[in-house]
TrEMBL record:
Pfam families: PGA_cap (PF09587). It comes from Eubacterium cellulosolvens (strain ATCC 43171 / JCM 9499 / 6) (Cillobacterium cellulosolvens). It comes from the Bacteria. Keywords: Membrane, Transmembrane, Transmembrane helix. This is Putative enzyme of poly-gamma-glutamate biosynthesis (Capsule formation).
Length: 528
C-alpha cells in the first residue's frame, strides 16, 4: 500500500466516526428542546381555552333559546288570560243588561190593585224596584271625544262685498272667499267663528264703519263648514235697534230646523210671551246705558253626534262709538242684547247654568287692544276668572292680530286652555299682521257622566291662516299657510300697500313665519 492510499484510508475512518458535541452545544440543544416543549404546552392550553369558549357559547345560546321559548309561552298564556277575561266581562255585562232589561219590563208591567192603602204601598214598591234597577246599571266612566275648531273675525269689508257681487252677477256670492278652508272645517264636528259684521237681509249692504253684510254670507260660511256663530262684538250695535232686530230675524230663520247650527252672543231680554225673566239685575258702567235683564231660560247648547252637549257663551269688552263720541249701548226696546265683560256676576251665573245643562262650556271673549300682539292684564285676569267659574275652553278675538295661547290651572284641579286672539279669519285690512291669523284645532275629551263628567282639551294647536288678495283687495280668500306659496305671498296686494307707504318690509313667507313664531309659543304653533 502506498503512502497516498494509507492517508486516504485514515481520513475515511475519521469521517465515519460521529463527532462529539461540546458542552456549550449540549446546553443550547437542551434549551431549544425546552422552548419547543413550552410552545407545545402553550398551543395545548390555547386549544383548551378555545374549546372552553365554544362550550360556554353553546351554553349561552341554549340558555337564550330556552329564555325566548319561555317568554313566548308566557306571552301566549297572558294573551289567553286577557281574552278569557274580556269574554268573561262581556258575558257578565250582557247578563246584567239582560237582567236590567227584564227588571225594567217587569217594573213597567207591574199592576197596582186593591184599596188606596195598597195602591200607596204598591206605588212605593214599584219606585224602589226601579231605583234598584238603575243602581244596578253600569256606572263605569266612559271616555269619548269631539273635535273643535275656531277662527277669528269674519270681517266683510266693502272690497269683499264688491267682489262677491261681481262673482254673483248681480247677487252676492262669497263661496270663493272660504273655499280653501272646507277640508279643514270638514275634519271637525264643531267649527266656531266670530261674526264681526251684522249679517241680515233687511239693511242695505255696507262696509266700514257700520258694517251690514247680506245674508248670503251666512249661507256661504255654513257651506264652508262653520256651524257655531258668535254674534257678540263691538259692531253688534252699530246699526241700532234696526240692526239688532234684523240680525235676530235673520239668524232665527237661518237656524230654524237646523240641529247642527248654533248662534250665541245675542241674549234675549224677554221670553216668548214678551215678559221679562231676568237672570240677574241690570248693569251700568260709565259711558254705557243701563243694561236690561237677560232672559234666564236661554243657554245655547249643541248636541254632538256622540250625545255629548257643549254650551257656547260669548261676551264683548266694548261697543263702538258713534260720530258724536257716544257709545252704542243696547238700543231701547231691543229684544236681545250683548253682555259686556264687566258684567262678571251675570257671566258667572250663565257659566254655572251652562254647566248644569251641558257636559262642556266654551266661553268666547271679544277683548283686548286692536293691532297689538301683547296680552293685557285685564284679559289675563278675566281668563283666570272664567276658568275658575267653570269654563273648559276660552276663545279670544278682536285685536285683528294673533296673540298667544296659555294653560290656566284652576283651584279645583282642572287645566283650561285659552287662546287670547285668533286674529282675523278673513280681512282686507292694510297692515301685514292683520291678514295673518290662526285657527284653533283641538279635541274635547269627556270622561264620566253627569256631575262626574271631566272635560279635557287635548292637544290644542294654532294653525296659521292667511288672507290672500290682489291689488286693491280684489279676489280675497282665506288660505292655510301650509299650502301657501312664496309666489302667492309675493303677489299678495299687501306688498303694493307696503311699497306705497314707503316701507322696506315685504310680505313673504319668512315674514309670516316670523310674526307667528315671535308671538305664539312653539308648544301651540302648528306650522305644517
Amino acid at each position: 500500500m502506498t503512502d497516498r492510499n494509507r492517508t486516504r484510508d485514515t481520513a475515511s475512518k475519521r469521517t465515519s466516526q460521529p463527532r462529539r458535541l461540546s458542552a456549550i452545544e449540549e446546553v443550547d440543544l437542551q434549551e431549544e428542546l425546552r422552548e419547543m416543549e413550552q410552545e407545545e404546552e402553550l398551543i395545548r392550553r390555547e386549544a383548551e381555552i378555545r374549546r372552553k369558549k365554544q362550550r360556554l357559547r353553546r351554553q349561552r345560546e341554549e340558555q337564550h333559546e330556552n329564555f325566548v321559548k319561555r317568554l313566548i309561552f308566557t306571552a301566549f298564556l297572558v294573551i289567553v288570560a286577557i281574552i278569557l277575561t274580556v269574554l268573561l266581562i262581556v258575558y257578565i255585562g250582557t247578563g246584567r243588561k239582560h237582567t236590567a232589561a227584564s227588571g225594567e219590563t217587569n217594573a213597567d208591567s207591574f199592576t197596582v190593585t186593591g184599596g188606596s192603602d195598597e195602591r200607596e204601598a204598591s206605588g212605593t214598591g214599584s219606585a224602589s224596584l226601579q231605583d234598584v234597577i238603575r243602581n244596578k246599571k253600569s256606572t263605569a266612566p266612559k271616555a269619548d271625544r269631539v273635535t273643535l275648531s275656531a277662527v277669528g273675525d269674519n270681517l266683510v269689508s266693502q272690497r269683499i262685498l264688491d267682489q262677491a257681487l261681481e262673482r254673483g252677477n248681480g247677487s252676492y256670492d262669497f263661496s270663493y272667499v272660504y273655499a280653501d278652508m272646507k277640508a279643514f272645517f270638514g275634519a271637525h264636528e264643531l267649527n266656531w267663528v266670530d261674526v264681526e259684521t251684522v249679517i241680515n237681509d233687511r239693511i242695505e249692504p255696507a262696509g266700514y264703519p257700520t258694517f251690514s253684510t247680506p245674508g248670503k254670507n251666512g249661507q256661504d260660511l255654513k257651506e264652508a263648514g262653520l256651524n257655531i256663530f258668535s254674534l257678540s262684538n263691538n259692531h253688534t250695535n252699530d246699526l241700532g235697534l234696526e240692526g239688532v232686530e234684523a240680525s235676530l230675524s235673520y239668524w232665527a230663520a237661518f237656524t230654524a230646523g237646523e240641529k247642527n247650527v248654533l248662534t250665541t252672543g245675542l241674549w234675549k231680554t224677554k221670553d216668548g210671551t214678551g215678559s221679562l225673566s231676568g237672570l240677574t239685575g241690570s248693569y251700568e258702567q260709565k259711558g254705557l246705558h243701563a243694561q236690561p235683564d237677560v232672559y234666564a231660560g236661554e243657554i245655547p247648547v249643541y248636541t254632538c253626534e256622540n250625545g255629548r252637549k257643549v254650551a257656547f257663551l260669548s261676551y264683548t269688552e266694548m261697543s263702538n262709538m258713534d260720530e258724536a263720541g257716544d257709545i252704542y249701548g243696547t238700543p231701547q226696546d231691543a229684544s236681545a242684547r250683548i253682555i259686556y265683560t264687566y258684567e262678571t256676576d251675570l257671566i258667572r251665573a250663565q257659566i254655572q247654568k251652562a254647566k248644569e245643562e251641558a257636559d262642556a262650556v266654551v266661553v268666547a271673549c271679544h277683548w283686548g287692544e286692536e293691532d297689538t300682539h301683547q296680552i293685557n292684564e285685564s284679559q289675563k285676569k278675566l281668563a283666570r276668572d272664567l276658568a275658575g267659574w267653570g269654563a273648559d275652553l276660552i276663545i279670544g278675538d278682536h285685536p285683528h292680530v294673533v296673540q298667544d295661547g296659555a294653560w290656566i290651572d284652576t283651584a279645583d284641579g282642572r287645566r283650561v286652555f285659552c287662546v287670547y286672539s285668533l286674529g282675523n279669519f278673513v280681512s282686507t285690512q292694510e297692515q301685514p299682521d292683520e291678514i295673518i291669523g290662526v285657527a284653533l284645532d283641538c279635541t274635547l275629551s269627556f270622561t264620566g257622566e253627569g256631575e262626574e263628567t271631566v272635560v279635557e282639551v287635548k292637544e290644542p294647536k294654532l294653525v296659521p291662516i292667511v288672507t290672500d288678495y290682489g291689488e286693491g283687495g280684489t279676489n280675497a280668500k282665506v288660505c292655510l299657510l301650509s299650502g301657501y306659496t312664496e309666489q302667492q305671498a309675493s303677489a299678495n296686494g299687501m306688498n303694493t300697500l307696503l311699497a306705497e307707504s314707503g316701507s322696506k318690509e315685504r310680505f313673504t313667507l319668512e315674514y309670516i313665519r316670523g310674526v307667528l313664531e315671535k308671538n305664539i309659543s312653539s308648544e301651540f304653533l302648528k306650522m305644517e
